[in-house]
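Ligand-bound model needed. zinc ion.
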Amino acid sequence: MIGIDSTICIYCKNHGFSKEHVAPFSLGGNCTIKCVCKDCNGKLSSVDQSLAENSPVALSKVGMTPTAAFGTQLGTIATMRDQRGFDLGVRIGNQMTVEVRPQIFLRGNQLSISCPDRQGIQKLVRYIDDQIRKGSLADVHQRITPDTIAPRFMMHRSDAAVVDAASSEEASKLLAVIEKNWPDVKTTLEKPDAGEVVKQATPSVLIKMVMKPNEEYRGVAKIALETTALLLGPEFVLRDTLDPIREYILGDVRLPVIDGDTPDQLAIDARFVERVPTENSFDFTDQHGVILFHEPQHGLAALVVLYGMHHYKVRLAPPMDRSSWVRHYEFSYTKDGHRELSELDFARRALERFPHLLKIDPGIATKMLEALKGETR
Ligand SMILES: [Zn+2]
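Prediction:
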């Protein structure tokens, strides 16, 4: 617990406090502040939840969180085995459902099949059997792919399938092979000991999840505002110039009017938060982190980094009477801790990771790092 206790809530400005996680607990955050009232804390928990479960961040959460990291179950591993006992381990998040799809691969004249379980194989057997009986196997959609990819038959739904092939001739050949070999393959698959027929293959996993971009952005803005309270104090955050972002986090989402010409555009309130393309981002941490900075022309802003790979810029407040400065705070997602990074830490990471962005010769960067090591001691 960082020593910033205030009985005034940084969201509703009423009295009251509770333990609030700066980086959401559901993303592994263990840094707490006390300047949020119980009501707001409860009301905003759905925003944290959406960031953790209904945004691209959820996929990183699923991939990055060791399930044994701490008591809270952030993800779980559904271990499925194919018929030969190969693990097809799939780690899933709380609200996600996964389906490991049966795969058929063609190697030479041999079909090899991988399924997460016996049922998957049976499903595939019935499906292909059906298609052959109906004489419709050759009618499956053919998708032409670069010729470096071997043709593959991908089962997609119970009523449709796709052949990925380099040419339509390749696809036709594959279909012919399936039809020709199918009775044998089927017999082998239906025997309890299928033996060598089923080979390990790269599983294709379908994950179903709901995205809530406006909630995701509010969740990111919340991390930025609470980190500001952590670093600059709750009194700072209570200033009137931060009222717009406060209202936004509390739910004042203003959706843009969608242009009729681009009906696919998502209605996202991007007044405060934008995603920064990874290649343009100055990524200083492999974990969660916030860089708080003030630009004389643009004002107070934060770069929020989640899992070292999702970068967001948050506009917190218009320019204020301050010179330029930068503060960096890092949160672990495995509950190892959290801390403010010193200028030396930051300089060291920048030199290690981005000598090219800094336009510094790698050899010189190494020398500078050596020098910094001396300073740290
Ligand atoms: Zn409140």
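DSSP finds ten helices and 17 strands in the chain.
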